[in-house]
Specification:
Blueprint (H helix, E strand, L loop, with lengths): L6 E4 L13 E8 L4 E7 L5 E8 L3 E3 L15
Length: about 80
């Protein structure tokens, strides 16, 4: 199960928030034993871009051999 403060990867687009699959965020709250998560997405500079509640199948844990990739945040 994904835990609070764990990094996760988005599996689906969230257009209303300007988020795309493979964006990386940090879990700030776990709901109902991992059925959903509150995830904070930040810019590379550390500013909060969005905080979104996501279902468990909409995110996955970061894997050891993955690297971050920068992109311009989509406008809302």
């Amino acid at each position: 199960m994904i835990k609070e403060h764990q990094r996760v990867v988005l599996n689906v687009p969230v257009p209303a928030q300007g988020l795309e699959p493979r964006d990386v965020g940090t879990v700030v709250h776990v709901y109902k034993n991992g059925q959903a998560y509150e995830v904070e997405f930040t810019t590379v500079a550390g500013k909060t871009a969005s905080v979104v509640t996501l279902e468990a199948d909409q995110v996955r844990p970061v894997r050891d051999r993955e690297i971050n990739h920068a992109r311009e945040l989509a406008t809302r």
